[in-house]
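Fold this complex.
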Amino acid sequence: MDLLAQMLGGFAVALQPVNIGAALLGALVGTATGVLPGLGVLGAMAILMPITVHFSAVTGLIMLAGIYYGAMYGGSTTAILLRIPGEGGSIVTTIDGYEFARKGRAGAALMICAVGSFIAGTISIIGLSLFTTVLADVALRFSSPEFCLLALLGGLTLVRITGNDPARNMLMLLIGMALATIGVDAVGGDTRFTFDTNTLALGFDLVPITLGLYGLSELFHVVASNNGFPRADRVRLRDMIPTRVEWSRAWPAIVRGSGIGFLIGLLPGPGSLTATFASYGVEKAIARKYRDEFGRGAVEGFAGPEAANNAVATSALVPVLALGIPFTPNVALMLGALIVQGIQPGPLLLSQHPDVVWGLLASMYIGNIALLALNLPLVGIWVRLLRVPQYALIGFIFAISFIGVYTMRSSYWDLCVLVGFGAVGAILRQIGFDLAPLVLGIVIGPIFEKSLRETLFLSGGDLSIFVTRPISGTLSALCVVAVLGPAIIAMVRRNAIRAKHA
Amino acid sequence: MVDATATDVDVPAAAKGSRLTSLILTAAGLGYLYQSMQLPMGDPLGTGVGAIPALIAVCWVAFGIYVTIRNRPVAAELGPWPRGTAALRVGYSLLLCIAFVVTLPFLGIFLTTAAFLLLMARLADATWKNACVVAVTTPIAFWVVFALGLKVSLPYGSLFTTMFGG
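Structure:
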């Protein structure tokens, strides 16, 4: 009953005209950026984040969530129509979604994805509401050692899961954490690494760094290729209605994908790729009648993964809302938006700022409806967006990045950081360094430092506090598993293969 | 954006670039370690303002050395390095970005953005006419959205302020 009252309170916040407008605008702008090849979800969020700062915390966050959802939807549109995945989670959709579209059923594929995303969003928002409350209650028992270990676990898991080289990822994570230490120390208020300059005392803000690393570096890549955008066929509204058979095959996959996505999203690490591939694997494994169609346009092959992708995006917010610890760069950016607004995320967020949490949850529901209601009729416009000349878009995106970053703090230093990290990001990506750990390092660095120093104060420098308390002991064990687990699994596999050959 | 057409890197060149980058990052880590060692470590040990940076720096240098020595080339997300005209395009766009930041305090948002967009559009093979249209309309659109809509203070530049008296 209490939950229902809080949810209704959230809807009261989300249904304010300014917040409905923010959700709609975010969904539209997000879809537009998701459709255009060149910017991923993170790039789109980073470019538009400075604009959200000019609104209240809840409105800004609602807009950012709309951008997040919209960009993912736009990504799946290009995955189906052009075989270009807008972001990692849409890679699976390029297999069967594109093949399905080639059969002349592009419109139906888009409709199934949109409805599937809506159902997945609905299921996972209900789950998110329940889990956030329960986890926030548990998190109230957490103290500094637990938060320190949670931050460490988030970083270690990302290092293990993302990209293809954990050592390089670890290096990036540490550099991100080091960057976060420049400026004013969050514990004692002392300045450090500033070389007696006022500029460095301001520290490195998350937005220009992320925007430089993801937005500008990607734009440099687009400028280098100068290929223009690919063209897609026209999709008519009347072609978008799936047949009865297509629906009957799609909906069970959507429900299964929603469940898989929600559960995987709760775990540390970038879950969208894992969830979509897991959903695809499950659909293929349980398929009987249509198994041969997988890889050649099976409805289940894109309905399930698209639902999983949407569900994972929602449930990934649970750790950040309940614990204040982000496990993915996208969510880290949302956490950054909260911090910029002066709101400290953590277990007390739910009790201190219920309007923000419940308003965000309710707005996600509204954002889902907005995507369904607006994007399907507008699919023709999204496809036509690809016909906008590249020369107009490139300069526009560059310029809006500059102005957006400048207007955040009226700081020329932030513009220097933006361009500098744009160049550095382009080089690092070209060499094969993954930048997600660096961004996460900047966010979890201060949480890790503050909680570790507080823990050492509490224990008088005794490190056994990390294993003697029940919750911190469990988290310490999970950190060890995150570091050693993959190596042990690989060793067991090697031994099994050797034993088989012997 | 995940590039579906991403190819494996030119391995010897990538390995060389990777080693050099790792070496530079390790050197930066050593500089950071030196600076953090100048700060107090606290009593009990680890509670001072320099303790956690020192811990991070030690790990940074250790991983930097490991990555440099091992030097495993990995498939880059973006494919091979841009060469020839493509490299010139990137260099030119980076120069334009630097020029934007340098001239903004003097020329202000309108002139700087207009000049940036004009040159950027020409870089992307727009005709002079189309480039001029983009250069004129976009700053006006920005002014409407940011200054009128969001009530944000834009940098009008010392030239504009001198000419129009603030």
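Chain A has one domain: 2-501.
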